[in-house]
Amino acid sequence: MNAIPPPFVQIDGVAMRYGGVEGTLALRGCSLDVAEGEFVAVVGPSGCGKSTLMRLVTGLWPPTEGTVIVDGQEVAGPLSIAGMAFQNPTLLPWRNIMDNVMLPLEVVQPHRRQLRSQRGHYEHKARELLKLVGLAGFEAKFPWQLSGGMQQRASLCRALVHDPRLLMLDEPFGALDVFTREDLWDVLQDVWIARKPTVILVTHDLKEAVYLSDRVLIMSNRPGRIIAERTVPYGRRRSLDITYTAEFQAIVHELRERISDARKAEAA
Ligand SMILES: Nc1ncnc2c1ncn2[C@@H]1O[C@H](COP(=O)(O)OP(=O)(O)OP(=O)(O)O)[C@@H](O)[C@H]1O
């Protein structure tokens, strides 16, 4: 009999308060599990603690209460197996695109150790990623020479270059126009199909959540916790055509209602 593998990410009864006992309680009683290779989206009212949750999973902050376990180990500091991308691409302006993408390799072991002797191999990998996101030929350009969408593509490559087993995406497409955003959904979808990292995506865009994920987790108002989830019934590879179907729109509508209920519950 095959034993069921433990969840790759296990968050149990987490609370997070910023700034001491009188500070802001961002999360309370927050629990969730994510399986290895699963793609989940986290949605919820503004300010409910989604980014805080991301910081706890990646070890950038310790929780005030509860436990965060990733790959069987309690998170006690910044996680080297995680790749991250945020709403603002945060590329270093003095580095060209290639050197920005290579940055995690200079920091994360075992790549850091191997970088000098295997630079050719790593550069090839960075170029392949840039090609995958449509940035071949832009390696020597600087961030300010690229559009916002192109910078976001580069930052996705930087999040992926060290083959992270966990990809944490906090509103990565939030600042982009709708066409660029939809292009990047498919870029991300292809990356996920090719490499199968475990992905946690925070987004305000419910269509994005449903199009990209296997499961959408819905958070309550602050202090945030997971109050509901919705499994997405589509296989891969998905095409943007599904976003126009009545079934897809009904799922988005259902999520919108649940978030609206969460907001009203807080106001009551
Ligand atoms: N570094 C911090 N110090 C103090 N309070 C903070 C800090 N970061 C976040 N908060 C507070 O914690 C709460 C949750 O913030 P968080 O950014 O996690 O929410 P969010 O759901 O990601 O918000 P949004 O949907 O607007 O992006 C907010 O009230 C915020 O003001």
Automatic annotation (TrEMBL):
It comes from the Bacteria. Keywords: ATP-binding, Nucleotide-binding, Transport. The keyword Transcription regulation does not apply. This is Nitrate ABC transporter ATP-binding protein. It comes from Roseomonas fluvialis. Belongs to the ABC transporter superfamily. Residues 9-246 form the ABC transporter domain. PANTHER family: ALIPHATIC SULFONATES IMPORT ATP-BINDING PROTEIN SSUB, TAURINE IMPORT ATP-BINDING PROTEIN-RELATED. One of its GO terms (molecular function) is ATP binding. InterPro entries: AAA+_ATPase (IPR003593), ABC_transporter-like_ATP-bd (IPR003439), ABC_transporter-like_CS (IPR017871), ABC_transporter_ATP-bind (IPR050166), P-loop_NTPase (IPR027417). Pfam families: ABC_tran. The keyword Signal does not apply.
